[in-house]
Design goal:
The chain is an alpha/beta fold. Helices cover about 40% and strands about 20% of the residues. The protein has eleven helices and 19 strands.
C-alpha cells in the first residue's frame, strides 16, 4: 500500500479533492494523508473522503511539533506553508512507524496514469529518497537559482537515511524558510540542491519525463497526443502533471494559465491536459457544494496595479489567459504563445547582466573612494 501526503486550505480544496479522485482512480489501494489547514477543509474531507483519505488538522500537527508552531511568529503565511513541507511527512513517519514510505505531492497535482513506475524505479535503485528535477529547458535555466529540484513530488522511505534526510530538511526550514533568495537559500526548495552530494546513491533523481510534467518543462519535451486521446512525453506515458499557477480569474470561463513565464501550450495539448483538469476541478466543486452550498473556486481579486499593467501586453500577445469556450480553452494566439518563455527569459537575462554590470561598477567606485 502506497502512502501519500499533502496539505491545503479552503482555497485549494477543489484542487485537493481533484488530486484525491485522480489518485484513487490510478492507485486504488493507496492512502492519502491530508493536513487540513482550516476547519472547513477538515470537515468537508471527512464527509467526502472515504476510508483511504486520512485527515489531520493543523492543530494536531502543531501540538506534536512545538518548534513548528513557534515558527509562525517569524514568517509570512506562505512562508509558514513552505515550512510545513518537511514537518508534515516527518510527523507522519514519527507518529505512524507502520508506514514504510511516504510520498509528498503538491495539492495542485493530478494523476493521469499509474504511479507504480515511480516506486519501481525507487526499489530498483535501492534509494531511500526520491526527487524530480525541474528539467528546465535551456532558455529557462536561469530559474535554477531558485533550486534545481522541485518540491512538488518527494518520496521518503521510513529507514535511517530517509528519516535523517527529513530531520535535516526540517531543521533547516525551521531555522530559515522565506520567500526570497538569500545566501544560497530559497524557501523550502533550495535546500534540496545539497541532497545529491549528501545522500549519494541513497537518492534517486527520477528522470521519467511523464512524472511532474509542469509549465516550466513541457516546452523542452516532446508531448504527443496518442490515438486513444492520452499523452506521451518523450515517448513515455504521462503519469503526473503539476498544474502550478493555474487559477480562475473571472467566473468559470476566464483562467490564468500560469504559463506566461515559460511558454504557453498549444491548443490540442492544452485541452488534453488542462481541459481534463478543469472538468475534474468542476466535478470537485460540485461535490463540495452539495455539502456546503455556495462553495466556489477560490479567486484572487483582480488588481489593476503596476504588475497588472506590466504583464498585460505580454498576456495579450502570447495568450496566457485562457477562455473556456465550447468545452475547451482558447487563447486565439495560433501557436505564438509557445515562444513567451524564450522572449521573457532572454529579456530577464539581459536585465540581470545589466544589473550585475551596474552593481560591479558601483562596487569598484566604492573601492576607489576608500583608497
Amino acid at each position: 500500500m502506497n502512502h501519500y501526503c499533502t496539505y491545503f486550505d479552503r482555497g485549494f480544496l477543489s484542487q485537493g479533492l481533484a488530486l484525491w479522485r485522480s489518485l484513487a482512480a490510478h492507485d486504488a489501494d493507496s492512502v492519502l494523508w491530508v493536513l487540513a489547514l482550516d476547519d472547513f477543509t477538515a470537515e468537508v474531507l471527512r464527509e467526502v473522503g472515504g476510508t483511504w483519505l486520512q485527515v489531520v488538522p493543523l492543530a494536531q500537527l502543531e501540538a506534536g511539533d512545538l518548534e513548528l508552531a513557534a515558527a509562525r511568529a517569524n514568517r509570512t503565511r506562505v512562508e509558514y506553508f513552505f515550512t510545513l513541507s518537511p514537518c508534515w511527512p516527518h510527523w507522519l513517519l514519527t507518529q505512524h512507524p507502520e508506514i514504510g514510505r511516504v510520498t509528498y505531492v503538491d495539492a495542485d497535482m493530478f494523476f493521469f496514469g499509474n504511479p507504480e513506475l515511480v516506486f519501481a524505479a525507487m526499489e530498483a535503485a535501492g534509494a531511500s529518497v526520491l526527487v524530480t528535477a525541474h528539467r528546465f529547458p535551456a532558455w529557462l535555466r536561469h530559474y535554477e537559482r531558485h533550486g534545481k529540484f522541485n518540491v512538488g513530488l518527494l518520496s521518503f522511505r521510513n529507514d535511517a537515511t530517509g528519516r535523517a534526510c527529513l530531520d535535516d530538511w526540517r531543521e533547516r526550514c525551521l531555522a530559515w524558510c522565506h520567500d526570497r533568495l538569500e545566501d544560497g537559500k530559497y524557501a523550502d526548495q533550495k535546500y534540496l540542491d545539497d541532497w545529491p552530494g549528501r545522500l549519494g546513491a541513497a537518492l534517486l533523481v527520477l528522470e521519467h519525463p511523464g512524472v511532474n510534467l509542469a509549465p516550466w518543462n513541457w516546452a523542452g519535451q516532446r508531448c504527443k497526443i496518442t490515438p486513444a486521446g492520452g499523452v506521451n512525453v518523450d515517448g513515455e506515458p504521462l503519469v503526473l502533471v503539476h498544474f502550478a499557477r493555474f487559477r480562475p480569474l473571472f467566473g468559470d470561463w476566464w483562467w490564468q494559465s500560469g504559463q506566461l513565464d515559460y511558454g504557453v501550450m498549444p491548443w490540442r495539448l492544452r485541452n488534453a491536459l488542462y481541459g481534463t483538469y478543469w472538468r475534474a476541478l468542476a466535478a470537485a466543486r460540485t461535490e463540495i457544494a452539495a455539502r456546503q452550498p455556495g462553495f466556489d473556486f477560490a479567486r484572487r481579486p483582480l488588481r489593476a496595479g503596476r504588475e497588472f499593467w506590466r504583464t498585460l501586453p505580454f498576456r495579450v500577445l502570447f495568450g496566457s489567459d485562457w477562455l473556456w469556450v465550447g468545452g475547451g480553452f482558447v487563447s486565439g494566439r495560433l501557436g505564438l504563445g509557445r515562444w513567451s518563455g524564450h522572449l521573457l527569459g532572454t529579456m530577464r537575462m539581459i536585465f540581470l547582466r545589466r544589473k550585475r554590470t551596474i552593481e560591479s561598477a558601483s562596487q569598484n567606485q566604492q573601492r576607489q573612494g576608500l583608497k
